[in-house]
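step=encode ok
step=design start
structure_in=
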């Protein structure tokens, strides 16, 4: 799911990559909660 983000983030900053992955995970969880 976030291998694309990992590749982009690794070139910039590992810390940013972690935040991106965490944000995507939270967004994914929110989508699951919204789904009936």
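sequence_out=
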């Amino acid at each position: 799911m976030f291998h694309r983000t990992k590749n982009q983030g690794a070139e910039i900053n590992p810390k940013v990559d972690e935040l991106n992955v965490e944000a995507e995970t939270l967004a994914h969880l929110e989508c699951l909660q919204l789904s009936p």
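step=design ok
step=annotate ok -> The two ends are 22 Å apart (CA to CA).
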